[in-house]
Each structure stands twice: as C-alpha cells, then as structure tokens.
Write a structure and sequence with these properties.
about 230 residues; alpha+beta; Glucose Permease (Domain IIA); 2 domains; nine-stranded antiparallel β-sheet; binds zinc ion
C-alpha cells in the first residue's frame, strides 16, 4: 500500500514537472526570438556569463572609460570562453558590418535580423571571413571568441554580445530577447561583472539582470552616483 502511494506520488510529481517544463519552454519561445551564441552547453570549461548587461559592478567602476559611450552602463552581455570557441548567429540574419565603428575590438561583426534587431559580436579573434550581405540561419558559425584589445587570450577571453535597434543608436538587454535559463549561467561564481551596484539614492534601481535600462549611445551617464554599495 505504502509502495503504491509512493509510486502514484512519483508519477504525479513527474507529470507536474513535465507540465511546468512544457509551459516554460513554450512561453519562452513566444517571448524571446533569439538563441544563445554557442552550441556547447554552459560550464566552467566551455562558457558562462561573466558580465551582465547594465550597471554591473565592473561597469560602474569603468563608467568613464570603457563604457562612457553607453551612458556608463555595460551595453552587452559578456560570455567567458576560450579563444577560438566558435560563435554562432543568435538568429537568422544578414551581415551588415565587419569591423565596423562599434567598438569591442579587435574585431566585430553585426548581423541584421528580419525582426528589426541587430546583433553585434565583439572581441572576435580574427576578422570573420564573411561578406556584407551574406545570409545566416540561427546557429550558423559567424566567428571565433577572442580577447579585448590590450588583453590576451590567457587574460579573460570572452565574447561581448549586444542587441541593438536598426539605427545602432540604442541597446537592449539581451536577457529579454535570448531564450535561455539565464539564472544558472553565472555558475554561482559571483564575479564583479555578475553583481550590481546598490545606490543609496534609490536602492531599488537596477538590482537584477532583468531590470536594467535600455541604453542610448551618446546619451548622458546614468550611473554617476556618489553614495553606493558595490559589493
Ligand atoms: Zn562586454
């Protein structure tokens, strides 16, 4: 009798978890049009999110230098990965810029997508051997992970990924546009780029990966704050 009850409870539990799984994947697919830029699963030896979009601790401390063009905020998501890791198109699209004037050197690539967004892949290892106008499906290889200018492949190599509007003047938070289980992608490391600055002026402002603001390139700095707690 006890066994039968356990068995029924186990079947019920698995049905409920499947229902939740199906509900979460179908709603996510409807809401978020893009995929992750890697084929491999996340992990310490493959890739993970090393810096969120927005007012990360790293962005706050570098707001006047690295991020001055984007209102002092980090205008993309950084994915830590070895140099040479293959970068994949986050959605179907067409190449509109190779090594364009969008920063994130030494090499960058911009794809235009039919839904009006543009994706920018930065800190690429080499100039992608592609043509302007070349078409891509989601998941096709478009480049290789490299390291930022002034850095090397054994010093925090990563992909810097941005999603902008058609004018390239506005950046959006990729967590709302890329289908992923973002919660697990920092691997619990608690790096400065994975945490956010608390401002005593409004301690509720921009506290999570999900509530960061859209960014206008060339706009005024938004985080020139004095009284902060940057853990
Ligand atoms: Zn970055």
């Amino acid at each position: 009798m006890r066994n039968r009850v356990f068995k029924r409870a186990a079947i019920l539990a698995s049905l409920v978890s499947w229902a939740f799984f199906l509900a979460s994947t179908s709603s996510a697919q409807g809401a978020r049009p893009f995929g992750l830029p890697f084929a491999e699963p996340p992990g310490l030896s493959t890739w993970f999110v090393s810096q969120w979009y927005g007012n990360s601790v790293t962005a706050y401390w570098n707001q006047r230098v690295l991020y001055a063009g984007g209102q002092g905020l980090h205008f993309g998501i950084d994915f830590a990965a070895r140099c040479g890791t293959v970068v994949r198109a986050i959605g179907e699209g067409v190449v509109v810029a190779i090594d364009g004037p969008y920063g994130a050197g030494p090499h960058n690539l911009v794809l235009a997508h039919p839904n009006g967004y543009r994706s920018l892949y930065g800190h690429l290892l080499e100039r992608p051997p592609l043509e302007i106008g070349q078409r891509f499906d989601r998941g096709d290889p478009v480049g290789l992970v490299g390291a930022p200018v002034g850095s090397t492949c054994d010093q925090a190599p990563h992909l810097h990924l941005e999603i902008r509007d058609v004018t390239m003047r506005r950046a959006y938070n990729p967590v709302h546009l890329i289908e992923a289980d973002w919660r697990g992608l920092t691997l619990g490391l608690s790096l400065p780029g994975q945490r956010f600055v608390l401002w005593y002026g409004d301690p509720t402002l921009w506290r999570t990966p999900w509530d960061q603001p859209e960014i206008d390139f060339g706009g005024v700095a938004r985080n020139a704050w004095q009284d902060v707690w940057a853990p």
